[in-house]
Amino acid sequence: MTARDDVRPAAIVALNATSLVQWRRCRREYRIARMLGIPASDEGPSPDLGVAVHAMLRQVHTTGTGSCRDGAHVVDVLAAHGFDGDGPMHAFVERHARRCPEGAVWSAHELDLARFHRLPAPMFMATGRIDAVWIHDGIADARDYKTGAPPTSEHLRDDPRARLQAWLLAPRAARKGLRVRVRYEFLSPEVVDDPVPFEPDDDELADIEEEMRAVVGEMWQEQEYAGVADPTTCGWCRYRSICRDSAAPAVAAWPVPPGVNV
Fold first, then answer.
1. Is residue 82 part of a domain?
2. 121, part of any domain
3. Least trusted range by pLDDT, from 76-80, 90-94, 151-155
């Protein structure tokens, strides 16, 4: 038994940071996850730490004094959620506070954005969530908090996720006469330097839109959806036990009938 071969991309393709990364990493993974919608068969890295850090930073910035530099406030917020005032969670907040912009006139947290591209074809709807946006010094300063692996690129100009975030935020920023800046904050103690932030100009924003249009065109033209069959890449895949091209044998977390692969 195999996955249906007649499944094709939707007329309006949905894009987000995860789907773009999957498409670039392994087209078989993209097909299984995005087109067939199959639940993950294998465990991946736990998101619990990242979820907790994001939640605490939001609480620190939106309650009480709203200042991550107010030590007493930070301790109170963490204690209210069961975290020690001098524990690992406090260290995450402290590392953020060193990067948090001062003098911001407006901020938003966990901002969901969507932007539709119609013409020239093909059409797509891009969505994304930005962990925090600060307005200061004529900039819409988008931040993405990272608690896991170290950066994969030195400059966010080379990161497709950061490029998508910039393109999503750009229309809102333009309406307020603001420039866009995307910055990743790597809050784990083992990461010393953040990648260089990305401040796209109008030409770069146009390039990003064209890149995504080209990606959607590739999706429509793709026929094989072959897996990469690389042990390192497959070892992290959450479909490695059921993928026909997997180079990392595993046992699925849910029952799989004999002979099933996708």
1. yes
2. no
3. 151-155
Long-range contacts of 89-95 (CB under 8 A, 24+ apart): 89/52, 89/53, 89/56, 91/189, 92/53, 92/56, 92/57, 92/147, 92/187, 93/56, 93/57, 93/60, 93/68, 95/185, 95/187, 95/189
Three-state secondary structure string covering 158-221: HCHHHHHHHHHHHHHHHHCCCEEEEEEEECCCCCCCCCECECCCHHHHHHHHHHHHHHHHHHHH
Residue 97's CB: how many other CB atoms inside 10 A? Answer: 16
CA separation for the pair 219, 222 (Å, rounded): 5
Instruction: Give pLDDT tens digits for 105-156.
Output: 899 999 999 999 999 999 999 999 999 999 999 999 999 999 988 888 899 9
Q: Which pLDDT does position 1 carry in this prediction?
A: 39
Q: Per the structure, how many domains does the chain have?
A: 1
Write out the residue range of the structural domain in which residue 51 sits. Answer: 45-98
The string of DSSP codes covering 129-141 is EEEEEEEETTEEE
Would you say residue 54 lies in a domain?
yes
Q: Please give the structure tokens belonging to residue 40.
A: 């993950």
Count Cβ atoms below 10 Å from residue 116 Cβ, excluding itself.
10
* Residue 103 maps to a domain: no
The 10 Å Cβ neighbour count of residue 85 is: 14
